[in-house]
Amino acid sequence: MYKTWKNICIGVLVLVLVLMYGGGMGTKIAFSRPVDIYEDVLSDAGLLKRGLAIETQLPLLMECFGYETSTQTNGYDNSTLVGDAVYYYIMPVGAGEETYYVALKTSSKSKNYESLKKLSQSTMNLIYAEPEEADAAPVAITGGLVSLDDELYQYMKQWFRETGWFEDEADIEKYVLPLSFSEENYTSLRIIFFVEAAIAAALIAAIVLLSKKAKKEAESAGSQ
Q: pLDDT value at position 89?
């Protein structure tokens, strides 16, 4: 009996460890010290990489270059339901004396969505020499840099080509990075990780105890 429970605990432990490992880049960002990329300008572009935790007041946000929507079929009348839309904006980031560009991912259900949308409109008004329309306040954001899907990355580079932002393709390849800022509630991620760690520790203790019980049970059965 003890051996059976031990095997069950081992199986559950493996599942918990998979969940903990599955946090991947999100877990790494959650336990990293966040950087204010606008208050403390990064010394070089090498610091702009996956896993960089960011907490800052976002002063500028350029146009939306792509979006995604999810759909599902209503089982009652077979109608199509459109889920929350996910939008990708262009976020300029200074590194050294140069400006690089990454994507910023947000969704229509984000508490910052309307503020980010307004900031984007304000920034583009400023770019197109309409400063009287550039009145949006900076937006407080918390999250981190993750890899940008290659198809979305191509869309972002296409935006720079079509607008003539850079003089040549080499500059696009240099300054437009395949990274995306992702808004996340890392407090909840940390809580989940600690809960999973506590469960894993309890399971390990249970496995050790059950192993001892199973050994005694086997020795007792062998002596009979």
A: 97
* pLDDT score recorded for residue 189: 58
Structure tokens at 65: 């270059």
Q: What backbone phi and psi angles, to 5 degrees, belong to 39?
A: -80, -45
**One-character DSSP codes across the chain:** -HHHHHHHHHHHHHHHHHHHHHTHHHHHHHTSPPB-TTTS-BSSGGG--TT-EEEEEE-----EEEEEEEEEE-TTT--EEEEEEEEEEEEEEEETTEEEEEEEEEETTSTTHHHHHHHHHHHHHHHTT-GGG--PPPEEEEEEEEEPPHHHHHHHHHHHHHHT-SSSHHHHHHHEEEEEEEE--HHHHHHHHHHHHHHHHHHHHHHHHHHHHHHHHHHHHHH-
What is the residue range of 216's domain?
Answer: 1-31+185-224
- Across the chain, which has 224 residues, the per-10-residue mean pLDDT values are 66 64 57 72 71 87 88 49 79 85 92 93 85 77 90 95 93 94 68 65 72 67 57
Task: Mark whether 42 and 138 lie in a shared domain.
Answer: yes
| pTM, entire model | 0.70
The span from the CA of 211 to the CA of 206, in Å, is 8
Residue type, 33: R
How many domains does the structure of the chain reveal? 2
pLDDT at 102: 95
In this predicted structure, what is the pLDDT of residue 170?
Answer: 94
Structure tokens at 195: 């809960």
